[in-house]
Structures are given as C-alpha cells and as structure tokens.
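Hi P.,

Sorry for the delay on this. The queue was packed all week, but I finally got your sequence through. Input first:
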Amino acid sequence: MSLTAVHPPAVASARARGFRGWTARRPLTAFLVLAFAGIYPMMSLPILASHGLIPGDALLQRLPMAPDELAGLLLTMFGLLPATLYVTWAADGREGLRRLRSRMLRWRVGAGWWLLVVAGLPVLTVGTAMLLGDPLKPVDPVRFVSTQLGLLAANFLLVNLWEETAWAGFLQTRLERRHNLFVAALITAVPFGFAHWPLAFFGDVTVTSAAVGLAFYLILGVVFRPMLAVYLRGTRDSVLLVALLHSFFNRTSNDNGIAAGLLDGDARALAMPIAVIVLTAVTAVVIRRRLTRAYRAVLDALPAGDNHDRNQ
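Then the structure:
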C-alpha cells in the first residue's frame, strides 16, 4: 500500500524540492519515518537507565512520574508531535497548521458528546464489572475525585492532547481520505502498537514477554482506535474531545484508575474492553451517517477556526 495523501498538497509545497518536497508527496510515509526516528531512541533512554545499562537510574527514582510515564512523554514530545507539525507544514503549509490547531481547540460539539466522553467509559466499565461480580468498595469521594481529576489533567495536558493530534488529527484523518473509517483505524492501530511497544521493556524482559507485549499493544490498538475514530467523526473532527476520551480510557483502565479505585476484584480487566466495544458500536450505529467518506470530505472542507456546533 502506498502511503500517499489523497488530497494534493498546497502549490508551494508541491514545488518544494529536497526533503520537504518528498514529505509533501508522501506525508504519511514521512510521518512514520520521522516519528519512529524519534520514538525509539528517546524511549530507550529511560528503559536502559532502569536496567542500569546507562547512568540515570537514581534520577529516574527522584522524578515525580514513573519511568514508563516518562517514556510515554518522550514518545509524544520527541517523536509524534514534531513529526506531525513538520509533515503538516511541509504538505499543507501554514494553512494546514492553522486547521490542525483549530481541531485541537474545537470544544463546541454539544453537551451530549461531552457527557459521553466524560462518563461513558467509566460508567460502562464499572457497571459491567459489577455485573461480572466485582463489588464496590468504600472510598472517600472528595479525595477520590480530586486525585483522579489531577491525574487526568496531567495525562491530558502532558501526553494525550499532543498524542492524538498525531494519531487522530494527522494519521487517521489522512487515511480516512482513502479508506473506510474502520479500515483507517485498524491501519492506525499498527504504528500505534509499535510506538507503545518499548513500554514492554521495563521490568524483567524476556523474548516471550517482549512478544506478548507487542501483541498486547497491537490488540489494544485494534480495540481502542476504532472508538476514537468514531468519536472523531461524531464530534466533527474535535481532536480535543478525542484526546480527552483517550485520557478517560487511561484513567478508567489503569491500576490506580477509576475502576480500580471503586471496585474490589479482577473483573474490571474484562469489563474494560467490553465497555469500549459497546460504546463504539452503539455510537457508530447512532451516527452512522457521519461515518462515510463523504462526511470526511465535509469535515475537510470546514474553514480553519470553525468551532461552531452544527447538527450535521
């Protein structure tokens, strides 16, 4: 499959020579090359330090975040985000960057979408886990909510907003111009899985654990990316809301997250993928008219700065 954009680049970009010209002609290939050129070298630093192979383990222990969280930050800031910004500029110029920024700030999507993003996964996951046998446990509501909101804000502002600018705002969007929405999401799941694979190299590592880790992240992408693709369409290309949904997924599924904080038992591990699939399927049926390639063209035609809620 040739990873080239369907929409022709801006005239100035098309005339560019050298690396920018190549990037403008093959933006998706360029994005993957640039992103992974930053992702693996940068993520390897905390991994090697945690195993004592390079200096820095003592520093890792003093940081206010876990080593794997630092690796996730490096994944975004030194791989995905620079690649996205450069390729968007090379292919679409400053207008492309303005459009991308507009989507990152698009918040007028209707109260219903905000409610689904904020409450959908936590409620479905906790409810499903209870049906599977996990009982609720007593919590201090003020402390619980404040802790989760703090972790959510850090996750969203430091990682997920920028990460989904790359995955949803750039890669998924461009793939949708050529492919069915769900096919585009499954293609996106492959580099998504490989980008997160280094996280499997913390702790004790064997060939088996590395292979299992890669399989886990690929399967996670296959389940997770279609949900974000559906919500990208439903919220009229709002990268902001998709990134927030990503953060709520993390805060619901993590060992120190919402489900773990409210429930006793292990059923939440099964309840989480069930909740994702149900939320994706139900939403997709309700907004099925927005899932066509024709609607992708409608969204692509929106002017930069358009942040109004429309019932299309």
